[in-house]
Amino acid sequence: MPTYEYKTKAKNVIDPAKNEYLSRPAVITKIKKLNSDVKHFSFEFPDQLPFIYKPGQFVQVSIFGLGEAPISITSSLEVGQGLELAVRSVGKVTKALHELKEGDEVFIRGPYGNFFPYQEYKGKDILFIAGGIGLIPLRSLINSILKQRQDYGKLWILYGSKCPADCVYIDELEKWSKLDGVEVLLTVDSATEGWKGNVGVVTTLFEKIEFNAENTIAYLCGPPIMIKFANVALEERGMDPSDVITTMEMHMKCGIGKCGHCALGHKYCCTDGPVFSFAELKTLGAEE
Amino acid sequence: MTNDKCQMTNEGIIKLLDKLKDEVNLFAPQTNEYGDTSLAQVKDACNVQLKHFKPVMPAVREVLFGQVKKMLRYQKSAGKTTVATLDDFSETVIFGLPTCDLEGILYNDVFYGQREFPDFYYNRAREKLTLITIACVTPPNKNCFCASMGHGPFATKGFDLQLTDLGNGRFMVEVGSSKGEKIVSLSPGLFEPVGQNEIAAWEKIKQGAERLPRKDFIKKDQALETMGREPLNEELLKDISNRCISCGACNYTCPTCACFNVVDLENQGGVVRQRLLDSCIFSGYWRMAGGHTPKPEKIQRTRNRYFCKLVWDKEKFGDSGCVGCGRCLDSCPVDIDIKEVIRSLA
């Protein structure tokens, strides 16, 4: 009779007496509209307990009666932001979230998942590539790295969106572009009147920058099609797949590796990810 | 682990069950007025059948989880909202559990009960669960292949009490845990000591059961060796996914399929969050808000199912998740046989 045992050494086992499915009330303190279907929310926890997270992690937001949705964190504790989420109105829970006002209450549990590795890349040049709302989780990382600006080399932020009106965090992109050694390049799929930037997919911006593949770490986040082409283009430029890091989107229902919906090969996006390097993704055979 | 032996008469077992049914929630195989046998709560101990029995739904689904498990209750009154854990577990005994179901529970003990996030609900229910198994000494059912997978017909661990029919109106009782010891010590009159003769008779029955002719024997060790190193047979997967009608019965009846869905339902002025069984063979299982689905093709979901069960479970938990109970084939409307997949690897 064989024995079932967990082969991976479990790190950070939670207190077994804790019901991890139970979420904490959180009050919306500020709402900002980022584009026609994306809003930025700031939260406070009435229980006053600390909420510690790292760039790349996500939370489960509950609106009771409708359900729970996994949302990536866009704020950064490094720069003193509390908990901020930016959400596209796309499903039941997120549509309801968009209806809420400042002062309203939701329920949040987490943070879950792994995080973007960046402390170990001090001294490297950093290339951020974002498409559409892919800038939301990267914003957390960008602000954390900018906090330790002197520890890193050159920074590029390449951002593509469908049209100028779809760009999110446009004020912050402008602020970042004025910093020393930070180059921000924008592109849109289709320009509207008054757009002076690049037109074309985000990979067309690669021609405008010179980066040394040996000494660069790339962080990608965007729609699957963008990820696919950007990855190919980076490989052509000689980037090692283990230096290309992305965050995956799957249906993370429970967030704690039980419900099975976010299986990516033999890994779970929620507990093993959502941050993966392309070297890992290749072994998972997850390039579908 | 203790593994003391004693024996009971058939009447003694009924007396024990009659006592247990008043003290705890007792589940045991019973035949209803329509002639269907299932694992059901015991009202009258005389209705319990003492033969080895494999229920249609594995016990881990039927008793431990329930097809629906209420998790949280959310209530809003006078401007104040509360969320409370629904924690209503009571002492439960399952009598007559087959070995394959015990294996399903031992798998879930690791999958749910351990790892980084031990599952609150599973562990609460499991702490209060006592398992009395009946070893399988009869010829295997049509689709059974537990012996091929090394998961039967006798359990060697994990049970609280294991019963073996000695065929003379008596059962051999093996005590496997302190929970089992407690049952024995609380009803001393019902358990009798065993001598050399009974042990010899039991050994003979056990060896006989292990030597029962089993057709379709699979070379599991060879298959496990190959799993993960060689790709699954794509032609076979294509054939399986062409036949599959995505009904999900294989997932729902599998003792080691653990996936669930979460649904909020309005209830008495509040909301109850509950989890239900789910099936990775449904395309909707993978779909995200906005409509994107990472596995739109049935063959992708079929591949995921067999990789998960046979290859990844072995990598993560030391053995394939298939315990050889044959329920997926019992319940499949289009005769898809997991043995074919395993055999293609061997």
From TrEMBL, chain A:
Range of residues in the leader sequence: none
Superkingdom as given in the UniProt entry: Bacteria
All copies of domain FAD-binding FR-type, residue ranges: 21-118
Reported cofactor(s): [2Fe-2S] cluster
Residues the record lists as binding [2Fe-2S] cluster: 254, 259, 262, 270
GO terms, molecular function: 2 iron, 2 sulfur cluster binding; flavin adenine dinucleotide binding; metal ion binding; oxidoreductase activity
UniProt protein name: FAD-binding FR-type domain-containing protein
Organism: candidate division WOR-1 bacterium RIFOXYC2_FULL_41_25
From TrEMBL, chain B:
Top-rank taxon: Bacteria
Keyword Isomerase: no
Family matches, as Pfam families: Fer4_22
Domain 4Fe-4S ferredoxin-type: 234-265, 313-341
SUPFAM superfamilies documented for this protein: 4Fe-4S ferredoxins
GO molecular function, one term: iron-sulfur cluster binding
Stored PANTHER family: ANAEROBIC SULFITE REDUCTASE SUBUNIT A
Protein name: 4Fe-4S ferredoxin-type domain-containing protein
Species, as recorded: candidate division WOR-1 bacterium RIFOXYC2_FULL_41_25
Lineage: Bacteria, Bacillati, Saganbacteria
